[in-house]
Design a protein that fits this description.
The complex is a heterodimer of chains A (about 375) and B (about 220).
Chain A (H helix, E strand, L loop, with lengths): L1 H11 L1 H38 L4 E4 L13 E2 L1 H7 L4 E11 L5 E5 L1 H8 L4 E4 L7 E5 H6 L7 E4 L2 E9 L7 E4 H7 L5 E2 L1 E6 L5 H11 L4 E4 H6 L9 H30 L1 H9 L4 H37 L13 H25 L2 H5 L3
Parallel strand pairs in A: 4-9, 6-8
Antiparallel strand pairs in A: 1-11, 1-12, 2-10, 3-4, 3-11, 5-8, 6-9, 7-8
Chain B lengths: L4 E14 L2 E14 L3 E5 L6 H8 L7 E6 L2 E2 L5 H10 L1 E4 L11 H12 L7 H10 L14 H13 L5 E5 L7 H18 L3 E4 L3 H4 L4 E6 L2 E2 L2
Parallel strand pairs in B: 3-8, 3-9, 6-7, 7-8
Antiparallel strand pairs in B: 1-2, 1-4, 4-5, 9-10
Helix pairs in contact in B: 3-5, 4-5, 4-6, 5-6
The chains are: A alpha+beta (about 375), B alpha/beta (about 220).
Bound molecules: adenosine-5'-triphosphate and magnesium ion (MG).
């Protein structure tokens, strides 16, 4: 019966109901999109790191996993690594930021192909001319590029010689010396990939290398990819926190306002319920249920909306942003939205409960 | 029948504070009503009729005196106790019907039962009351789709659905035309005769008052008979 009154009240003011539901839906979508984008980017980076095929990653001293490390390692180190026992292959790469979070990556195509098992060319093939660039399928799709298209990056025009399947290190690839020159880092690399003869030997090689090069960051691939988490990206956790806080605040305020006006508008009805002998708990439960229904519908719509934002992010926000659906965050987002909404109901509900029945009945 | 007296009001005073001045709305009211009686209260405007009704109905506490309903004194009760009295022993009918606008007539009646914690809607007494009220066919309608007379009949149904010890009606015909007034008054009398419902009704209209077994007059916060 109480539920019926709740539903009838919600139907009675469809615009108010719709707005409250929308606010909560937006709140939930914002949270889930934020989580989905950070998760998507991390997973994508992980996948591309694994795609390199290396067993060991070496980065310069004082670098962190997810920052753009400067090309500060001498490329002679590559030869040094190749001479170590148990190492079959080593190759370096250099990354150069080109604005925003996009970067171009220089590789030794021949050695890199050996290590990663080679690129799968969806169209075209390897570098032939000095202005050739390889892009991955995702980048090509978003920018509507095909083999032979020209792209302008860092004040230079490049010719697309091949489109590769995504998942190997980077989306934009150039020959190593080209990027070294652009980055002003001739003879230096930002990271070195090492392949060992047998995966079982990886740890021994790492231990050995760590002893010989104590300052360098030397990771096994498992170690390296496990470091791709929100807590290791400087500022990401804080940024997530800010977005979630703002979303919750929006939801809270809208529900607060909505329930507050509902209480004023229903002063008389609350008085009627009290004259019928409704207890404080009854009136409170009426309001909390109403909010709960709003929040629940809002949450479901919010979750559905994330499928929409995923399309938008993945197709329009550029290839360096990837959004995934993070289902394990659904209950968390729901709890945040419902909790915030109920919090926003407490004060209006308290006011409703405090109302004097007699005064409420004479309220026009 | 146990105790024949169902309401015993003695030495009842109610003082309202309106700003700096005290308004003595009730200045010592003594009144007893027997089970099954239909009593109407008349008196000039401002004589304290509604105040008496609100105190007896447990909507507001008295300043002093006692109000015993069905053997329980509600003058000394707190808010919770008075809420319980309203729930179990008292049914209200107001001049302005006071139906919940978002619920259908049937649901307005059902929610009173729900609040009182009575689940089944099928008891014979209630079905007979519905028949008497003549609203069986209007139960699916929202209040705004009903005439004043119909709304007031729904309000009466809602008030008696919990078998209250007493039905309190404050100018139940105040907003109705003559024809609807007659119908509602006849109905109250029938509820009283056929079902034994105790009724206390406030009215301005001497003709309406005549439907009752006994008429009590008030003036300046006192009963003057
Ligand atoms: N909430 C209140 N605060 C202050 N004074 C009040 C309040 N309610 C009633 N009064 C005063 O108490 C007195 C009695 O009012 P009451 O409403 O009981 O009269 P009544 O007999 O019902 O009049 P009417 O026939 O006009 O309905 C009046 O002087 C009124 O102004
Ligand atoms: Mg009055």
């Amino acid at each position: 019966m109480l539920n019926k009154l709740v539903m009838e009240n919600l139907k009675h003011r469809p615009v108010r109901t719709l707005l409250s539901v929308c606010a909560i839906a937006v709140e939930v979508t914002m949270i889930l999109t934020q989580v989905g984008v950070s998760r998507g980017m991390l997973e994508d980076s992980q996948r591309r790191a694994r795609g390199v095929g290396a067993d060991v990653w070496v980065r310069p001293p004082n670098s962190s996993v997810l920052s753009f490390s400067s090309a500060s390692m001498n490329e002679k180190l590559v030869e040094f690594f190749e001479k170590q026992a148990g190492v079959v292959l080593a190759t370096g790469s250099v990354s150069h930021g080109i604005g925003g979070i996009e970067q171009i990556t220089g590789i030794d195509l021949e050695k890199f192909s050996k290590m990663s098992g080679g690129f799968r060319y969806i169209a075209g093939g390897p570098f032939r001319n000095p202005d050739d660039i390889l892009v991955d399928e995702r980048y090509a799709d978003i920018h509507k590029l095909s083999v032979g298209s020209k792209v302008k990056l860092v004040n230079r025009e490049w010719n697309i010689c091949g489109i590769i399947e995504p998942g190997k290190l980077a989306r934009l690839l150039l020959p190593l010396p080209v990027v070294q020159e652009m980055a002003g880092a001739t003879g230096r690399v930002s990271q070195i990939f090492v392949k060992v003869d047998q995966p079982a030997n990886a740890q021994r090689v790492i231990d050995d290398l760590k002893q010989k090069l104590p300052d360098y960051k030397i990771y096994s691939i498992e170690e390296f990819t496990s470091l791709f988490s929100a807590s290791n990206v400087p500022g990401l956790r804080a940024f997530n926190g800010v977005v979630i806080t703002v979303s919750v605040l929006v939801g809270f305020l809208v529900v607060f306002l909505s329930m507050y006006t509902a209480v004023l508008e229903r002063t008389r009805e609350i008085g009627i319920l009290k004259s019928l002998g409704a207890s404080r708990g009854y009136v409170l439960s009426l309001m909390v249920r109403e909010t709960f229904v709003l929040a629940l519908i809002g949450t479901v719509i919010g979750i559905l909306l994330t499928y929409g934002t995923r399309v938008l992010v993945n197709f329009y926000a550029g290839p360096s942003l990837t959004q995934v659906i993070v289902a394990e965050w659904w209950p968390i987002a729901a709890a945040i939205a419902i909790g915030g909404a109920i919090l926003g109901t407490l004060y209006p509900a308290w006011k409703a409960v405090q109302q004097d029945a007699l005064e409420a009945l004479s309220y026009e | 029948m146990s105790e024949p007296v169902i309401i015993r009001v003695s030495g009842l005073r109610k003082v309202y504070r309106a700003g700096q001045v005290d308004v003595q709305a009730l200045r010592g009211v003594d009144l007893s009503i027997n089970r099954g009686e239909f009593v109407s209260i008349v008196g000039p405007s401002g004589s304290g009729k509604s105040t008496l009704f609100h105190v007896v109905g447990g909507l507001t506490p008295p300043t002093s005196g006692s109000v015993e309903i069905d053997g329980v004194d509600l003058a000394k009760m707190g808010e919770t106790g008075r809420t319980n009295m309203r729930k179990t022993k008292i049914g209200f009918v107001f001049q302005k019907y006071n139906l919940l606008p978002t619920l259908s007539a049937g649901d307005n009646i059902a929610i009173a039962r729900h609040i009182a914690g009575k689940a089944d809607n099928s008891d014979a007494w209630f079905l007979e009351a519905l028949k008497l009220l003549g609203i069986e066919r209007r139960l699916d309608h929202k209040p705004r789709a009903m005439s004043g007379g119909e709304q007031q009949r729904v309000a009466i149904a809602r008030a008696i659905v919990t078998h209250p010890a007493i039905l309190l009606a404050d100018e139940p015909t105040g907003n109705l035309d003559t024809q609807n007034s007659q119908a509602v008054l006849a109905l109250l009398r029938e509820l009283n005769h056929k079902l034994g419902q105790t009724i206390l009704m406030i009215t301005h209209n001497p003709e309406a008052a005549a439907f009752a077994d006994r008429i009590v007059s008030m003036r300046d916060g006192r009963i003057v008979n």
